[in-house]
Amino acid sequence: MRLFAGVVGAALVLVVAMLVSSVASASVGSSGAPSVAHANSSPTYTVAFNETGLPAGTAWAVHYAYVGCGCDGPHGTVKGTTSSLTVALPNGTYRYHVDRVSGYFVNVSASGTLSVAGTPAPSVTFAFHPVVPFLVEFTETGLPNGTLWTVSVRGNGNGQAASLEHVTESSYTTSLNFTLLNGTYRYTVDPVTGSFFNGPSHGKFVVAGGSPAPIAVSFLTPPSYTLSFVESGLPSGTNWSVRIGGGQTVHVHETHSSTTEMVNFSLPAGTYRYTLSEVLGFAVSGPASGSVDLTSSGATVNVTYRSLAPGAFYTVTFDESGLASATHWSVGVLATHTFGHSRHETQSSNTTSLQFLLQNGTYRFTVGRVRGYTVNISSGTFSVAGASPATVELEFSAIPTYSVTISEVGLANGTNWSVLVHTQASVGSVYPVRETLTANVSNITFELPNGSFCYVIHAVSGYRITSGSAKGSFVIAGAAGATITIGFTAKG
Questions:
Q1: How far is residue 396's CA from residue 373's CA, in Å, rounded to a whole number?
Q2: Which DSSP helix (H) or strand (E) runs through 264?
Q3: Which of 218, 243, 300, 363 is the least crowded, having the fewest Cβ atoms under 10 Å away?
Q4: pTM of the predicted model as reported, rounded to 2 decimal places
Q5: Do 314-398 and 402-490 come out as alike in CATH topology?
Q6: Contacts from 1-4 at CB under 8 Å and sequence distance 24+?
Q7: What digits encode the pLDDT tens for the residues 345-392?
Q8: How far apart are alpha carbons 403 and 478 in whole angstroms?
Q9: Hey, which CATH number is domain 402-490, 3.40.50.720, 2.160.10.10, 2.40.10.220, 2.60.40.10?
Q10: 281 DSSP 8-state letter
């Protein structure tokens, strides 16, 4: 008697074998009858795809594909010129999408999934709408002649309408035009270097059976002058930033960054407030914020950073419990500074503890996923303020797994064979699984969480499968054990 490959746990599994017949792809004519037959006949049920809105006799088509295990399930195209197209399909879950028809679009329901489970078989109806566009005009004032400007619009349409309603146009003249369907739209005008908005740069408009009034976009393009911030004290290549706000002619809010010693702004004359970013390991000598007057001759602000005293680092400890001995785990720490600049560090360990050396500040942490486990705290924050903070205690809990055995008969003793098991994409499992096991004994056993899975029996040289299926699926639901048996016969 052969020994089991793998440990068969005492937990129960519910295994529902759903064998997938080997099927050729089908191209279906206007009658709706498949042009090829299924190689291994399974009961089929008539699925109807219906349309409304197309003129009589208009050609249209729907593509469908099985989304269960394996890649050889029923798939093909049903096409015709009638308002209803049918195809005979065995039980299973299928994806579908309808082709675009020139001059028409399908909103929302252009694609989806359907499930065949005996009778009555499902039907899907596609509502086609004629493409009736209306002109929408944007006009601009205030830009120098020949300046490129851009507007993006986004409608509320779904399905095939999305590509017609999500549009970007640009122009070197004072106007640009869109042709849009009925609907509600939001627009955004891109910034133009050297110019400033003198009114809204975004908004909403409605197309309802006609063109709306032109939408005006106003720019100001006053003379601009250079405001420079020059830093000293940072190591070469260090990222730092300056945020600017204020002004008289136009109101400005800008943030510029640099990895050199200089940050420059091009702004109209006026008085501006500024704030310097924090830089990890350094402090600003003097005020980190202030104001500056920008005139036609420009202005320069000198900034000095100083390194924090050596030794101002503190140990931050993360301890774990619950993981199997030598299991690899990790924690990422993010120090967020002014304006979103950050430094990220990740530590990993296969012991029960890991540590970081960090300076004063507030930090976010994220615990890396460990397959087969959940953790009580997946993310959080902590502060370092002149001393090491309390240890962060992480408690991992194993996700229950259950044994499923695939058994072979007919192979000569000592013959290697293998099985691939992976999560069924259309349903899923507690955590993703893709695992291949090989054995030279009769049984191969997988330990798996609850979920839906596919299996594939790999070919064995000199043998063919004569009972059972080389591909199929099963469900693990924490109950009732079963074995999938595959029969091999030597090729004669």
A1: 6
A2: strand 262-267
A3: 300
A4: 0.58
A5: yes
A6: 2/413, 2/441, 2/442, 2/443, 3/441, 3/443, 4/405, 4/441, 4/443, 4/445
A7: 899 999 999 999 888 778 999 999 998 899 999 999 998 888 899 999
A8: 9
A9: 2.60.40.10
A10: T
